[in-house]
Design a protein that fits this description.
Strand order of the largest sheet: 1-2
Mean pLDDT: 79
Largest sheet: 2 strands, antiparallel
Strand content: under 5%
Structural class: mainly alpha
Oligomer: single chain
Number of strands: 8
Length: 626
């Protein structure tokens, strides 16, 4: 890391403490008493992706990234296991007897372990992804890792298909542990399609996955997951289909009420209120880690609150949990579930699409040119890094890993793109995972509190998709592709019964568009189930539609008059914007100028407002340096 080199060159103080504008990072704001036009303070200097940091600065900024990621990382295990237990109340409903109560406790113990293991695997994956590891015998053409601040965490897009795959496996009589082992084996077998995609030429990837196709995919993932977050907010997944008093929601401590009861809704709104206050008054550090403060504040309110003497938070699991843990403390029998292969292969294609966009966004935030041979190598290394990290995560018994996009906002606000912060982030995630008490605390968060945070978190995924769609000029052709794709994807999310798959115990229901037929071979039935699971997944049907339409619909000739009007409007908007009221002190926008005769011009930036003469001067300086 950079602080070791700094220690040797400049001494211990510079290496350990360094210089950073901590006032910028930690000072709360009071926007309503600020004089118009007054500057609060100047932002800190920009740290490039290959620039070394002092140990204190690296740990501080790495902690922000780790806290920002942690909610993403812990969600899959909690969400998937709660949904699956809701599918089988006869096995996991403690009100039915001691056996069911014991089954539920074992499942929660497994979920607690998976939370810790996911944090550990994410930490290791992040350290690998921010590195640049040349692949032997390729003469430097291919690499593992992006070499920029691309953080890795447990992927949330798989939350849409994992519960239904586990339900299908368990419908054949397998236990939850056996079903999880089959899912892990299927992940290990299918993830290599993303590795193959990493070696596809960049020009082909860019043509198949333009920004608006990526945006449709990401938006539909957010739409489906936001619905799951609302179920948590109302009390839990298992009781979301029955709002009666005789269907109490589990997972909210000792409080047993029907779905959507007032106390549950109020707890979720308390989290939203904390988000609101942090956004208005919080320091940059606090706003970067808003979801964590919302969870902590909501948890504190739930811990001191009660309903008719019943507590929302119980500490039994924290008391009985060991202090430390690590990977493979729980093991699962590995297998492969045939019907899951088709949806899993497509899910990894979607992950490749998302990683493509995430790496590009990280380059923008890091002031690196998102084009050219270096960009192509970063995308290739990121896709291969996703593959290796996911395979290792499956070997480590956890869900797949992928790059996380929300951390790019921290890069922009802190003005730190140094890879040292990525290594520090991985260190913090390892610490969070090894301390088992943290996983036990997470399991004690009431569903209604967690749901309030998840709804906000997943809605941000929708917004990320919308921003990706906006990267491309929305002409009539693009408008049609996006509208048709969202029609099928959002429609499936809102009315899942439209294409509900008949699987497991429901395989012989006659109202399915591809029903099970007596005498159907095992292979054909597995294929049928895989296709139906895929078609019932919003982002699958939406993304597939977008990719097909993008290839077969001819492109229209651009109307120069329409383009001139749009450019005129854009210039007018930029001239009339009042930047004096900007809240976040972000980096100055830059544009990148490439001298075709200078191979070192890849990462040279020029202020966006630079004149032609200034731009020419920069190119001249580049030529002199060469």
């Amino acid at each position: 890391m950079g602080f070791i080199k700094t220690w040797k060159a400049e001494g211990a103080k510079s290496a350990l403490v360094g210089s950073y504008d901590w006032k910028f990072l930690c000072k709360p704001r009071w926007p309503y008493c600020r004089k118009k036009g007054a500057d609060e303070f100047k932002p800190p200097p920009f740290y490039a992706h290959d620039e070394g940091l002092s140990l204190l600065v690296a740990l501080s900024i790495g902690l922000q990234h780790a806290l920002c990621m942690s909610t993403n990382i812990i969600t899959p295990a909690l969400l998937v296991f709660n949904v699956v237990m809701g599918y089988f109340p006869e096995v996991y409903d403690p009100s039915l007897g001691d056996e069911q109560a014991a089954n539920r406790e074992r499942a929660l113990d497994t979920a607690q372990y998976l939370v810790s293991a996911s944090l550990i695997c994410s930490g290791i994956g992040t350290m690998m992804q921010v590195s640049t590891i040349p692949i032997p015998f390729t003469k430097g053409k291919y690499q593992l890792g992006t070499g920029v601040l691309s953080t890795m965490g447990t992927a949330n897009q798989y939350n849409a298909i994992f519960p239904i795959i586990l339900y299908d496996i368990m419908s054949y009589g397998y236990t939850l542990d056996e079903a999880w082992g089959k899912l892990l084996g299927t992940i290990m077998a299918c993830v290599w399609i993303e590795g193959l995609i990493s070696f596809v030429p960049y020009k082909i990837l860019k043509k198949v996955f333009p920004p608006y196709v990526l945006g449709v995919t990401v938006s539909l993932i957010g739409v489906q997951l936001t619905g799951a977050g609302m179920k948590f907010w109302g009390g839990g997944v298992s009781c979301s289909g029955c709002a009666a008093v005789n269907c109490p929601c589990l997972g909210n401590g000792e409080v047993l009420l029907g779905f959507g009861s007032g106390p549950y809704v109020a707890m979720g709104f308390a989290v939203f209120l904390i988000f609101f206050l942090v956004e208005i008054f919080g320091s940059p550090f606090a706003r970067n880690t808003m979801v964590i403060w919302g969870l902590l504040g909501g948890y504190a309110i739930a811990a001191i609150a009660s309903y008719e003497g019943a507590a929302f938070v119980t500490t039994d699991r924290m008391k009985s949990s060991p202090v430390f843990t690590f990977l493979w403390m729980y093991t699962f029998p590995i297998g492969i579930h045939g019907p899951a292969v088709i949806p899993m292969l497509f899910a990894f294609c979607v992950t490749a699409m998302e990683t493509f966009g995430d790496v590009t966004a990280t380059e923008h935030a890091s002031r690196l040119r998102p084009s050219g041979p270096d960009h192509a190598k970063r995308v290739q290394g990121g896709l291969l890094g996703d593959t290796v990290a996911t395979f290792f995560a499956a070997v480590g018994t956890t869900p797949p890993n992928t790059t996380l996009s929300q951390n790019n906002g921290i890069v922009s606000l802190t003005r730190c793109a140094s890879a040292d912060a990525g290594f520090a982030c991985g260190f913090w995630l390892l610490i969070f995972g090894v301390i088992a008490k943290i996983g036990a605390w997470i399991l004690s968060i009431p569903n209604c509190v967690l749901g309030g945070a998840l709804c906000f978190l997943f809605a941000n995924i929708i917004l990320s998709g919308i921003k990706l769609i906006g990267f491309h000029r929305i002409d009539r052709r693009t408008h049609y592709i996006v509208a048709a794709s969202l029609a099928l994807g959002v429609g499936t999310a809102l009315v899942p019964m439209f294409s509900k798959p008949g699987i497991g115990a429901n395989a012989d229901k006659p109202n399915q568009w591809w029903p099970y037929e007596e005498g159907m071979s095992t292979a054909l039935n597995s294929f049928r189930v895989g296709v139906m699971i895929s078609m019932n997944t919003p982002y699958f049907i939406g993304s597939l539609t977008a990719m097909i339409l993008n290839q077969i619909i001819p492109r229209d000739e651009v109307d120069p008059e329409e383009l001139a009007v749009e450019n005129e409007w854009a210039e007018y908007d930029s001239d009339t914007d009042d930047d004096s009221e900007t809240d976040d002190l972000l980096a100055t926008p830059v544009k990148y100028i490439e001298d075709p005769e200078d191979p070192k011009a890849e990462n040279k930036e020029v202020p966006a407002e630079a004149t032609a003469e200034e731009s020419a001067e920069v190119i001249g300086e580049q030529a002199d340096e060469a």
